Amino acid sequence: MFYQISNFGFNNNNKFFIALIILLSLSYTIQANDSDAITYKIAEFHKKYEGKYDLNITASSSDKKVPLFIVLPGWVGNKKFTDFKNSLITPALENANGIIFSPSISWKSHSAAKLEQIIKDFIATATQNLSVDPQKIVLIGYSRGAMEAINLIKNNDTTFSALIIMASNFKFKNKLSTPIHVIQGTKDKFFPISKARKNIIDAKSKGCNILFTEVETEKHITPADYIKDLNSSIPWLQNTIW
Description:
The protein has helices spanning 13-29, 36-48, 78-93, 112-129, 144-155, 193-205, 227-231, 233-241, and strands spanning 3-6, 53-57, 66-72, 99-103, 132-142, 162-166, 180-185, 210-215. The chain is of the alpha/beta class. It has one domain: Rossmann fold (3-Layer(aba) Sandwich).
């Protein structure tokens, strides 16, 4: 079962109430507590961040506690975010039985503090009201979004159960407690695989728990090349991390 709220287009009260009705149905779908207080909290998040996030729910009605995937796609821009999502995130995670959240502030140049705040606010809302398992919150970053994800992990190393980064110029200066899955193209013209391999060795020497996957792809700018490998993170999470 798949639900989507791309509410970065909402800009008036009528659309807010439409979104609220959808959110109410979602809370029932994933078996969230249906009290008025929880409904109000969901509405409060939307009211505060109206037009500033994309939300998809793939959880079935039988799920009691579900994972949350927070996606930082890099600076793709509002117009290209949908293409990015449809080419990589949706096909890779549609069977993950969870919630997929992406703050639109991460789609362009932004304040790191504001990005961190909306993510924290949604985690609080989702764990309280949308049956999200606080032990199954995963941060996903692509390209520049991967670097932003690493910076977020530094300040919130116990918040996320795992970090997944793709197509990035990653480097871990210090040990992170959060398990990491690095997915890197072997022919990425922007970020050479040789450098990635060295950085993996360095991160492991610092004590990082890293799964490293090399993808046979030629283009850094083709997210669809990473579908299979991002999807492979699901059994890694289920069998090793959770």
